[in-house]
Amino acid sequence: MAFRDVNARRHIGLQQLSTLASTGRTFLGPMKSHKFIVDEITNQSTLICSAVRLIESLDLTSAVGQLLNETIQAQNKEFKTGMSTLLFLVGAWSNAVVECLQQNIPVPAIVSVMSEGLNSCCGRVQCLQIPIHDVKKELCSSRVRPKALESKTGQVGRHDLKNSWNLLCFQTDISATEEVIPINSCSHQGHDCNFNKFLVSPLAGFGSVASVVKAVGDKSSPTLSGSGVTAPSCIAQKLTHSRHFSTLGKSPFASQQGNFQGHLSGPAADLCGLGRLAVALSHGNQTSVKLLQSIAAYQQGRAECSGSSQVNLAEIVTCSVLGLPESYSCVSPGFVTLVSPEQATVIKHFADKPLRILLVDGDLTEEYRHLGFNRPPNVRTILEHPNPQGGGAGDAWPSRMSDVLMSFEVNLVLVKGNVCKNFMERCLASRILVIGCVARAVLCAFGSATGAQAVTYLSQLNTSCIGNRAWAELWKTGDGRAVDLGERLPARISAGGIPLLTAVLTTALPSKAQLLEDQFWTLLYRLHHALKDGKVFPGGGAVELLCLSHIQALAEQPERPGNAKELPSPWLAGCKSIVLQALASGWKRYLCVLLCNTATVSSELEAGAAVDHHLQKAAACGSPSAYILEEFRRGGVLRGGSEPFPGRVTDLKVCDNVVAKTEAWRRALDLVLLVLQTDAEIITGPRRNQILNSPVSSEFMFL
Amino acid sequence: MSRLEAKKPPLFTSKPLTRDAVSQSLSLLSGVLKSSYGPAGRLKQLHNGVGGCVCATSQSSALLGHLSVSQPVLRVLTASVRNHVSRFSDCGLFTAILCCGFIENFRSLNVAPFTVIQISKHLLSLCMDHLKSEACGCRVSVDFSSLETLVCLVRSILTSKPACMLNKTEVDHLTSLVLKAFVFTVPCHVETNAVLGKCVVIPVKGRRVVDSAVLPGLLIEVPEIQLGKPLPVKRTGSNVIKIALFSVSMSGDGSNPEEGTIVVHHGVSLEVSELNQLLSMGQQLVKDEVGLVLCQKVMHPSLKQYLKENGVVAVDRAGLSLMEPLRRVTGSQPIASIHSLSPGCYGSLKDLCIESFASKHFLHLIPEDTVICSLILCNRSETAWDELKRVCETAEHVLQLTVKEPLALLGGGCTETHLASYIRHKSSSLPASTFKDLGCSQTQYQLVADGFCRSLETVARSLSHDGEEVLTDMVYGHCWLVPSEIGRKLRRKPCSSGQRSGEMSPPLCDGEDPAVLGASPRVLAGREVPGARPCSAAAPGGTHRELCPSGCARHQDLSPVSCLPQGKCSGEVLARKTKSSSD
């Protein structure tokens, strides 16, 4: 067992932390720079754009690296957002703490003052929280007219009205947002027009499509116009476009459609707010917003009675389709997955037939046994009467099993694990579609929608295990085209009333697939948590600015003399002030880097000056929180002075999750304080000789 | 026949404690332990150096569990400390530091080991008698009719390990949960042989500490797919749910770990026959109106399916640690065979429902009357959760031990300092007959007693990690940690009020002649020590005020360091320690 003193000179652990964290600087803020991670041995590279992926690809064998990884992963698992903030603050605070140590401030003083300071900040920023209800109302206020229109419409002719409503929305949104989000390259333009067309066209007749496109085209200034597209249009398009939802004659799905459509017109205001909330939380990510609006609309339609306004994460899966432009991304009800051409042939044969479905929650191979089954090692099988005709045993199992499936007239098998290749081929030959590696959530959704009961072995099969009325088709893009990408084709499997939604993420760049998926989940989790918390923070540095001003006020506050419980001596009061300044410096660095990354200032020095300027203004105002809220209402807290229309109330507001943000702060500080309080590293296990021979052996002691 | 290599000749080492290697390892070990001690103790990162998980801790159980010690002498020491921890959960570091102190102090004395043992046994008995006497100033009686002392006791245990990463609100929340859990484990109907129950810790990692909760009864985690939305549960005629609890594996693999080979004819499947056996037992269970089947190990999916179809809830993989609580909650006898079922082995439950915490789903077993409860424990990171779990278990255990003997000792180094000053005082006034009985001279006795006291004071001094000075009141034996800046100032300037004619000094400073130090008791003058470290900054535990007996009211102004009540076990601690050092 080896033992190393961490505190030999300066605190090695904190230095390691700060070095590791410095790599994630460019991920702060909405304008993230991508990074290539190159493996020097294999020369393979990946494109990343988030702290989680970065930490995953770093070499983290050191103890501090492990702890950092653990912290980032925990935040990711819970919130899927705030990891970049966490990583950055870990770095900033560990630097600040090292400076405190150099001024001889005792460790317990740093720990207690910092953690109480953060606590006090978390309490202080509560006044900035905006209830979700208000966000929706405020963001929707410009929508009064269309809403009134909508509420007056009857069943007849709703489509036409909706159409005009959509048009209206489009125009107002574009005019509202155009000067706020300038686009850097003109190449996006064609893309976005295309997208708009795709979204609106299903509802409109040909004439109006032209008009919409024209409307967009007329705005010759380049815009990212998607932000204002409302959820109803997306969803209605989806439904009217699906052949299962469009023909009312199809009994199993007709009621579903009626239900759904009937709901859509009702809480239009709410949906519009939710869509706007998603935009505010998206921090500029357009594609995911549209997907999210569809999801929110669909799930709200389902949850109309239950009254829960939450996004159910368990009922959403993603499917990446490579080879299509990103504008084809959309949300499809049911389960979309990639299948082989042979499987696709079987799907084509199904046509519109309702399918009998079986769910298997293990592998479908001969050798597979449930977890916890130990093969007895001491069994020997003897064969008394050899049978010369008996073929290979490997052949027998697939045929026996496919016979079982046929006898129960199963058409579709979803398997959680792997599927034996021979068995798969045999099933395809008898037109049974078998799909492997299906997520548990998907099995659950099909179980509840079709009444199927998951089994582990096919020998368990009885009629009650099998579900009915599933169906399969090849997935088509929004404009009705089937996709043929060669080896793997997207297919859609669904069932009446299934709660499951698949976000189909299309991209032409394979290296971006992971990135898009991450972004989608991040935004989905943000919306989920915003609804769960019931409130959001104003974004764009508002909260950090208030923390900064609060901490500075605390640091300057003279000690109350009468309070014996507080630190009494001037020396300790001085300590407190230094430590609080260190805490504040983390947020200040955060704001500066945020400003630099968004390219509103040219240097970090200038950013620092801008932050100081805002701090002074906030202090001069008397109530910093009121000042910050007012600035936020005007369109952003840390705006530079060089805006085109200063003072004009703009429509674009950025919001952040409340709990995710404060938890990220807390986790970052906890990690820094944990490392700060560590004075030794103990390496266990039998690596004595290895350490003895290593160049750092002099740092170790042995027990 | 294989040839056996001759053994190496035995190697004898006389006086192993004096060897360099031993003393180096010992001082390293005692350094590791001392630096971890107390609420401001430093953490150690334990890991295997090749990317395994990292454990940041200052707990003796985790530290000593991971250390591989090569010196036999140290192995004896660590083994006895771990043994102590396994019995009392608490005071591991205290034991270990004291133990190292004894070895270090006694080793250098020029006194025969046997004499040292005799004298230290006598000193120990002096300590024990004093701690047991009513007059003992560092003893606090725990009043179970009020929460005050109990809260203080739990709080000081929770705050003693900084790696839990708790803030004040979280400490308060957990303190109340731990106490609630403790109250759940006390039986309502007291019989002659009352047995305390158990609090089972359910892990929910990645959540905020304030999301933790306590529930009576038992929670078992179940994967979602097993359960339909409304829980179909079958009740017997008397409206209870009948339970069968299996400790045997029901996976259908016929686990035969015995030696030998089973020969099977081709075409005969052991698996099928085993499964049939399971299914026929399933039929029996259904016939007996069992509503819930619990299995410690794995259940065959076919059996689960059969039970589910017949309205029986089946849960497997409960795990060994839950078996005893399950047995107590349901009152059932664990069934160890799948071949026979006796009707007497079933237990019963009042109700069964599903609880969800975070993304986990639990089956909540609600009995009629129980002493078992579940503490759903949350903490943000894995490392901090592990530490917190050990701390909460310690707190539960200490509370249970306190029921047996409702006494606590003052913490913050006060007890040790008090005992040391008591021994110093007492040993100078012993009758000559005592020395004769022990077979030693008075000088020898003084030497050993001094080593003994210094070992005790070492423990108190180990609480200081940031160069704070330890100030001691030699009359009452209380001690304070003050920041070094203030300590220096105090030493330079003689005390302001001379009424009590004393000088203020940090008596536990290294380098002072211990004999001189012990000779004349010094009184802490003045009523206030400016800058004595407040509890909020350094040791957020219970304050002295809360635990100080009314006899020393003057300490209330001084707000010394936190008290770390050591439960009842301290007597045992001393006993163990002396033994392992002198044996």
From TrEMBL, chain A:
Q: Which organism is it from?
A: Taeniopygia guttata
Q: Record's GO cellular component, any one?
A: cilium
Name recorded for this polypeptide: Bardet-Biedl syndrome 12
Gene Ontology biological-process entries:
chaperone-mediated protein complex assembly; eating behavior; fat cell differentiation; intraciliary transport; negative regulation of fat cell differentiation; negative regulation of stem cell differentiation; photoreceptor cell maintenance; stem cell differentiation
One GO molecular function term of this record is:
ATP binding
Q: Which domain of life is it from?
A: Eukaryota
TrEMBL record, chain B:
As for subcellular location, the record says: Cytoplasm, Cytoskeleton, Microtubule organizing center, Centrosome; Cytoplasm, Cytosol; Nucleus
Listed PANTHER family: MOLECULAR CHAPERONE MKKS, SYNDROMES PUTATIVE CHAPERONIN-RELATED
Q: What is the lineage of its organism?
A: Eukaryota, Metazoa, Chordata, Craniata, Vertebrata
Pfam families for the chain: Cpn60_TCP1 (PF00118)
BP GO terms, sorted: artery smooth muscle contraction; brain morphogenesis; cartilage development; cerebral cortex development; chaperone-mediated protein complex assembly; detection of mechanical stimulus involved in sensory perception of sound; face development; fat cell differentiation
Report the GO terms under cellular component: centrosome; cytosol; kinociliary basal body; motile cilium; nucleus
The keyword ATP-binding is annotated on this UniProt entry: yes
Q: Please name the Gene3D superfamilies in this protein's record.
A: GroEL, GroEL-like equatorial domain, TCP-1-like chaperonin intermediate domain
Q: What is its main location?
A: cytoplasm
What name goes with this protein? Answer: Molecular chaperone MKKS
Q: Which GO terms describe its molecular function?
A: ATP binding; RNA polymerase II-specific DNA-binding transcription factor binding; unfolded protein binding
Instruction: Spell out the family assignment given in the record's similarity comment.
Output: Belongs to the TCP-1 chaperonin family.
UniProt keywords (A-Z) are:
ATP-binding, Chaperone, Cytoplasm, Cytoskeleton, Nucleotide-binding, Nucleus
